[in-house]
Amino acid sequence: MKFRSVIIIFAILTSCTGHNRMRALLDTADSLVDIRPDSALAMLDRHESVADSMPTGMQMRYRLLRAKAMNRAFVPFTTDTVMKDVTTWYDRHGNIHERMMAYYLLGCVYRDMGDAPTALVQYNKAVELADTTADDCDWHTLCHIHGQRAELFHKIASPEYELEEWKQTAAKAWRAKDTIMALRAYELQADTYYMMYCADSVVSITESVVELYNRYGRRDLAAGALPSVIYVYLNQRKFDAAKKSMDYFEQYSGFFDSGGNIISGKESYYGTKARYYRAIGKSDSAFVYLKKLLMFEKNITCAEIAYRELMGYYANQHQTDSVVKYSQLYCHINDSAAIIRSAEEINRAQVLYNYNRAQQMMIAKTNEVDNYRIMLVAVGLGIIIIIVTSYRLYSVKRQKQKLKLVEENQKFCDLLSKYESASEDMMRAMQGFERYKKEKEDELKRIRKSIATYQETMVHDDDSDMERAMENNEMVKRLHKLAMKNGRVTIKEMNAMVTFVENAFPEFYARIINVDDKLTEREIIICIMIRLYLIPSEISVLLDISGQNLTNIRSKINRKLFGNDGTKKLDYNLRQLF
């Protein structure tokens, strides 16, 4: 047995040690997730096999941190199952910051799964949870949420919404003291203004953000902010400004190798270079960049730019056949691009419709919840009214019962008074008035029979002097009067009763406190009151218990002491226990 206890204690200590170790691991991952998300994710993945055996709170923290690390490390989510459970749990048990992070990450899950409307709904919930008046507001997470909303609005071509989100992103980033994030959000406002054909805003924002990037020593980011303004300069035929910006872009952006080749994904810049050189009359240089661009003609954007610029190039060279060739290719690719754009527009419209519909459904659910709350409040009020009414009816009924008991006790006391008077008269009769004695003895018998109907037993003519003395005892009389006045017996009076019965009726007292009979303290007191000729209605008032409750207790006493069911002959049997 001792060996088994040792094993159990060892298992508990081992479990606690394991939990402490996992808690330390989660703390370490939490400290790394923002600065080294790859390391945090690798650390968490190594312990994924034991995640399900963790306590629920620790398991949910593990899932939340892992999702955060995946998002920061640009690892795409493929299912919403885990994060839905995590979000539900934190919505019930987490603080504001944890709930906001859970909804934000759930939005990122739907973003990666291509469900923009649902992603926006989750981002909106996350933003609503943020308390921007609190000293510990998580501005850093909040600016990322606004940034993600801006990206989604960009994808569905809603520049007005996108612009507002970039402004919010910049404002929250400044509050989070994330300078680079704030400048990046400011920079992206220029790209949004370009989509809205606001050239002046593009120029002013880009010039400001480039100056700020340079002030903070980030020439690479300053250079990366220039493409939109380069397009504006070319459209405005400000070729010197365009050339200056292109040179800065190529020198400091980090997008070009030593051979002047741009990184993958940004090849359309060759078209920008070709357009510049053709505009300033350097057709040969323009042609060089167009040939580079043609290497990526499988990309429909690159092909469209290349064919358009080549069409203009050969027009300047007066080469009709080539103009016709690239005109046809441009028309064909333009049609293809138009079809794709049309499909994209339809998709964007569908996404916006789904988003608006999701918002309407959310509002409808909110209204439904409000209706349920109103209904629950109404039901609750109804229940309270029923309870209060029932209690008042019960109180009135109980009061009537007490008044009836007091009335019965009054009648009983009157009978006792008459009995006492008749006893005195009988004493006088015993001194020589035989006839008077006989009358009073008959009167006593009648009165005692009436008393017996209250005491549920017969009072016999051969009662001992001890019984009569006990009935005339001052303490017993006081109890009768107390019951008549609807009073409660005190602890002191109970002790006096016990002492009196213990001295006056030792055999009776020994029987009722016998441990084999297992009478409770209340049952013993009730036995003593019965022995002192207190009737049930008096006992009910003195002990403040209902008549039905007293009947049940009397029945239990009769069963324990005499083996009888019910209360029949209980009073008589108790008084036979001298």
Question: Overview of this structure, please?
Answer:
This protein is 78% helix and 0% strand. By secondary structure, it is mainly alpha-helical. Residues 1-16, 337-350 and 457-463 have low confidence and may be disordered. The radius of gyration is 49 Å and the shape is rod-shaped.
In the predicted model, the low-confidence regions spanning at least 5 consecutive residues are: 1-16, 337-350, 457-463
Total DSSP helices: 26
Structural class: mainly alpha
- Quaternary structure state of the chains depicted: single chain
Mean pLDDT across all amino acids: 81
The proportion of residues in beta strands is under 5%
Order of SSEs, N→C? HHHHHHHHHHHHHHHHHHHHHHHHHH
Q: Radius of gyration, Cα only, in angstroms?
A: 49 Å
End-to-end CA span: 55 Å
Helix percentage: over 70%
The biggest beta sheet is recorded as: none
The tally of beta strands, per DSSP, is 0
Shape: rod-shaped
